[in-house]
């Protein structure tokens, strides 16, 4: 219906395409790589989005000199606002890596990082979507408690997160600087920030990222 070519043969994909994205569940990936390995050439760019499968494992399952990269996306890719990181294997060339990065940026923001950061990205940005949703929900519920209708409160909370994120990205400011700019002596914001500190928001958030990252590392070892 969309005009895309489809096939039931994984080998046929590699015979027709130079850049191939492996978007399988981690436990399925080894069987798929074994299936396509006979037709992999040094010119293929092989990209895995399977969480927890290391570059070394990918390279072990593919022919020598295969160009392998890992990508860690997050859910906002579906609205072209993803935060993605990518790591390259030993044989991936700079030009091919740049090509992949350019393609991925159609779905948001993408940066090349050392592979050691991949699990941290999962804790920060993959799981972080849920953490931000909890905070957005809590912001709105605070307004609901003070008398604002629910739908309006949730829209304002989401727009506040969006606008703040744009300011941080476009102006390149550290969050602490923007936070300071909003605070006035004896004003509303500093009173609210004091309440957040009393509730342990900062420590709880850091612990959430740590817990999610540790779980990602545990799954990677498995």
TrEMBL record:
Enzymatic class: oxidoreductase
Could you tell me which species this protein originates from? Daubentonia madagascariensis (Aye-aye)
Compartmental location: Cytoplasm
Name a biological process GO annotation. amino acid biosynthetic process
Q: The Pyrroline-5-carboxylate reductase catalytic N-terminal domain covers which part of the protein?
A: 3-52
Q: Which SUPFAM superfamilies match?
A: 6-phosphogluconate dehydrogenase C-terminal domain-like, NAD(P)-binding Rossmann-fold domains
One Pfam family, please name it: F420_oxidored
Q: What name goes with this protein?
A: Pyrroline-5-carboxylate reductase
| Cellular component, GO annotation | cytoplasm
* Ranges where the Pyrroline-5-carboxylate reductase dimerisation domain occurs: 115-219
Gene Ontology molecular function, alphabetical: pyrroline-5-carboxylate reductase activity
User: Which purpose does this protein serve, as stated in its record?
Assistant: Oxidoreductase that catalyzes the last step in proline biosynthesis, which corresponds to the reduction of pyrroline-5-carboxylate (P5C) to L-proline using NAD(P)H. Proline is synthesized from either glutamate or ornithine; both are converted to P5C, and then to proline via pyrroline-5-carboxylate reductases (PYCRs). PYCR3 is exclusively linked to the biosynthesis of proline from ornithine.
Q: Spell out the family assignment given in the record's similarity comment.
A: Belongs to the pyrroline-5-carboxylate reductase family.
Which pathway is this protein engaged in? Answer: Amino-acid biosynthesis; L-proline biosynthesis; L-proline from L-glutamate 5-semialdehyde: step 1/1
Annotated catalysed reactions: L-proline + NAD(+) = (S)-1-pyrroline-5-carboxylate + NADH + 2 H(+); L-proline + NADP(+) = (S)-1-pyrroline-5-carboxylate + NADPH + 2 H(+)
By its UniProt entry, which InterPro entries does this protein fall under?
A: 6-PGluconate_DH-like_C_sf, NAD(P)-bd_dom_sf, P5C_Rdtase_cat_N, P5CR-like_CS, P5CR_dimer, Pyrroline-COOH_reductase
Q: What is its EC number?
A: 1.5.1.2
Which NCBIfam families does UniProt cross-reference here? proC
